[in-house]
Amino acid sequence: MTIVKIRRQQIFYSVAILLLMSLIFGMVGFEYMDEKELAAIENQTMTAPSGTVSVVIKISQRILEVYSDGNLHKKYRIAVGKNKTPTPIGEWNVVWKDYNWGTGFGTRWIGLNVPWGIYGIHGTNKPWSIGQFASHGCIRMRNKDVEELFEWVPIGTPVRIEGRKIKVERTLKHQITGSDVSVLQMKLKELGYLNSRADGIFGTVTKQAVEAYQAEHNMEITGIVTKQMSDLLGI
């Protein structure tokens, strides 16, 4: 009986050790493959852009593009905001940069001038989230990728964020802010009524662009975008 009991214990411990080792190697292998899978898209330059730098973030594709003098220089895979905490679309600028900004933000922080919250491009301690709709609105990159980007983008760099289409549901008017205002501004720019940035702020210039649109379409000139006008604009 004693020998049988000892053998059972040996089998139990052997199985437990095998399961533990499998789990450890599985996690290591997953992270390795994950890092390899999520690396900056292959066959791209490692050199810094020589011209004026700008950034375009494509939310639907979860891709960040770096441009040099208007020409595509490099692409990175990123993570963006979840449905309930979307990444703010619009035309922003880099306004501050920092190292090791806080837990969960990786090794670099590149802050954007979004007027209704703190948003930025940063690293992550969750590399497996890259390629997903996973953040609270910020743009996540692998640490090694954001460290490279950090050196390439000076303060003032324009960052255009293109998102999944947001349906404008509320009435938009002077002094309102939000991603829906950015959608309106982008549409007015597309139609030639607005020449300024889509900064998500319904300021005087945006109001004047709305009034110009209303005048040309024989609408009451109020400078206010109603649901009816949003439907007419297709936003």
From TrEMBL:
Q: Which residues are annotated as active site? A: H122 (proton donor/acceptor), C138 (nucleophile)
InterPro entries referenced in this protein's UniProt entry, alphabetically:
LD-transpeptidase (IPR050979), LD_TPept_cat_dom (IPR005490), Peptidoglycan-bd-like (IPR002477), PGBD-like_sf (IPR036365), PGBDSf (IPR036366), Transpep_catalytic_dom (IPR038063)
What residues does the L,D-TPase catalytic domain cover?
Answer: 53-162
Q: Which UniProt keywords apply?
A: Cell shape, Cell wall biogenesis/degradation, Glycosyltransferase, Hydrolase, Membrane, Peptidoglycan synthesis, Transferase, Transmembrane, Transmembrane helix
- Membrane-crossing residues? 12-33
Q: Which Pfam families match?
A: PG_binding_1, YkuD
- Superkingdom of origin: Bacteria
UniProt pathway: Cell wall biogenesis; peptidoglycan biosynthesis
Q: Which family does the similarity line name? A: Belongs to the YkuD family.
Tell me which PANTHER family the record gives: L,D-TRANSPEPTIDASE, L,D-TRANSPEPTIDASE ERFK_SRFK-RELATED
Q: Know the name of this protein?
A: L,D-transpeptidase family protein
Its taxonomic path starts at:
Bacteria, Bacillati, Bacillota, Negativicutes, Selenomonadales
